[in-house]
Specification:
Number of domains: 1
Number of strands: 13
Largest sheet: 9 strands, mixed
Strand content: 15-25%
Structural class: alpha/beta
CATH architecture: 3-Layer(aba) Sandwich
CATH superfamily: Glutaconate Coenzyme A-transferase
Strand order of the largest sheet: 4-3-2-1-5-10-11-12-13
Helix content: 10-25%
Length: 239
């Protein structure tokens, strides 16, 4: 079997966000988070619920398992029984996320998606983030607009939690006294210096930083032959 690619390390890192999650709704956004959620469901998180994005619950093959009308979807979203993995055009040291605009809100340099459901997601259920291209333009000192709510703004939010941020360079969490971002693992072939250079704020870096775990042979087979045989993951993260 050929060597593990960077994209496959990212898939496993995303899958780990749902380890031991139990019967909650996984809402992955993006190719690699979607492959990761399906991998988690097939392996270590068999109770995970997957949706077609409309009104159905499906298994990893797309077979319909149940009906999820919008009112029940909202009940899951607002009751902490969903774990979404969103993208981030900008994210800061406390996990505040921006997907709305670049520059001043009144006269932005660039208009993006808009706030969408980010505030509801982040205040009412666990939210992780996936960034396919780690750079100082994304990992910023201060986001231009707060869409997803970070730890410094979430006082009193009962279900607010940001389990992890996964990028093409590594995995990050907020396991620090002030809930600022910490480097949790490096993908093989990446150095701490590379991550620091690509981040516009000062990360918390432990004395010893482990590597992101390698997928098992069984997981690799599932990724390559069952879940993503067309290799869409490599179009999101090269190398």
């Amino acid at each position: 079997m050929s060597a593990v690619t960077r994209a496959e390390y990212c898939v496993v890192a995303c899958a780990e966000a749902w380890r031991g999650a139990g019967e909650i709704l996984a809402s992955p956004m993006g190719v690699i988070p979607s492959v990761g959620a399906r991998l988690a469901r097939r392996t270590f998180s068999p109770e995970l619920l997957l949706t077609d994005g409309e009104a159905l619950l499906v298994d990893p093959d797309g077979t319909v398992e149940g009906w999820l009308p919008y009112r029940l979807h909202l009940a899951l979203v607002t009751g902490g029984r969903r774990h979404v993995m969103m993208g981030a055009s900008q994210i800061d040291r406390y996990g505040n996320q921006n997907i709305s605009c670049i520059g001043d809100w009144a006269k932005p340099v660039r208009q993006l998606l808009g706030v969408r459901g980010a505030p509801v997601n982040t205040l009412n259920n666990p939210t992780s983030y996936w960034v396919p291209r780690h750079s100082r333009r994304v990992f910023v000192e201060k986001v231009d607009m707060v869409c997803g709510v970070g730890y410094d703004r979430a006082a009193g939010a009962r279900h607010h939690r940001i389990p992890r941020v996964v990028s093409d360079l590594g995995v990050f969490d907020f396991a620090t006294p002030d809930r600022s971002m910490r480097l949790a693992s490096l993908h093989p072939g990446v150095s701490v210096e590379q991550v620091r250079e690509a981040t516009a704020f000062e990360l918390v870096v432990p004395p010893e930083v482990p590597y992101t775990r390698e997928p098992t042979a069984a997981e690799l087979r599932l990724i390559r032959e069952v879940i993503d045989p067309d290799g869409a993951r490599a179009r999101e993260v090269a190398g």
